[in-house]
Design a protein that fits this description.
The chain is mostly beta strands. It has one domain: Hexapeptide repeat proteins (UDP N-Acetylglucosamine Acyltransferase, domain 1, 3 Solenoid), CATH 2.160.10.10. Helices cover 8% and strands 29% of the residues. Strands 1-2-5-8-13-16-19-22-23 form a nine-stranded mixed sheet. Strands 3-6-9-14-17-20 form a six-stranded parallel sheet, with no helix packed on it. A six-stranded parallel sheet has the order 4-7-12-15-18-21, with no helix packed on it. The longest helix has 9 residues. The protein is globular. It starts with 9 loop residues before the first strand and ends with a helix. 44% of the residues are buried. Its main location: cytoplasm. Keywords: Cytoplasm, Cytoskeleton. Belongs to the dynactin subunits 5/6 family. Dynactin subunit 5 subfamily. It is found in: Cytoplasm, Cytoskeleton.
Length: 217
């Protein structure tokens, strides 16, 4: 009997997501990946931190695409995401061509609400880059956003489209980073505008697609 072929580092799902076998993904049924997303080794994604609700549909697990578990429905990704973003049992949504680097941590944001400590969904857009060892607890990360290595994005923060977070920056909880702004420092403040010297993450789709293409080769 011939020896079994060695397994590659990455699992590739039906929608083209490339997920390292050495990543730590908890609560896969509460995570939606839009397709062509990369999750590197030792990245931690906490889909198990979600706001439970008695009204949650038991069909949630059939509409998620994660590390080789579940299949994408025949409807488009955008409509599926829109239908699930308001579902409290969906903890994390990540758009297309996003890249989660090694040892990065994604956690849903949390806060006290009516005397109860609750988690809220973390929504990440398309063409988002999360650097090594970054910690993200934002409420919303727009499209074409760059989050540098060792950066911290605090609970319930909002990063608008085309925002750029420098390496080591600490975005305070609840802070809103406007579109096309560069933030840095601890605590983070606006230090410039996206333009010369700060490329748009996934601009025209080229950078993100090239990064995706070389993963696993």
């Amino acid at each position: 009997m011939p020896p079994k072929a060695p397994k590659g580092e990455y699992i590739e799902t039906d929608t083209g997501n490339k997920i390292s076998r050495r990543s730590l993904i908890h609560g896969t049924q509460h995570i939606i990946l839009g397709g062509k997303t990369v999750i590197q080794s030792d990245a931690v994604i906490r889909g198990d931190l979600y706001r439970s609700s008695s009204s949650s549909s038991s069909t949630t697990t059939t509409t998620t695409t994660t590390s080789g578990q579940g299949h994408k429905p025949t409807s488009s990704t955008s409509s599926t995401t829109a239908n699930n973003n308001n579902n409290p049992s969906v903890a994390i949504t990540i758009g297309r061509y996003s890249y989660i680097s090694r040892q990065a941590i994604l956690r849903p944001p949390s806060r006290l609400h009516r005397g109860v400590y609750s988690f809220y969904p973390l929504k990440i857009g398309d063409h988002v880059f999360v650097g090594e060892r970054a910690v993200v607890e934002a409420a919303s990360v727009g499209n074409h956003v760059h989050i540098g290595r060792d950066a911290v994005v605090g609970s319930m923060a909002i990063l608008k489209d085309n925002a750029y977070v420098l390496d080591g920056a600490v975005v305070a909880p609840g802070m809103v980073v406007p579109s096309w702004c560069v933030v840095g420092g601890a605590p983070a403040r606006i230090v410039g505008e996206v333009g010369e010297g700060y490329g748009v993450e996934g601009g025209e789709g080229g950078l993100a697609r090239e990064r995706y293409r070389v993963v696993g080769r």
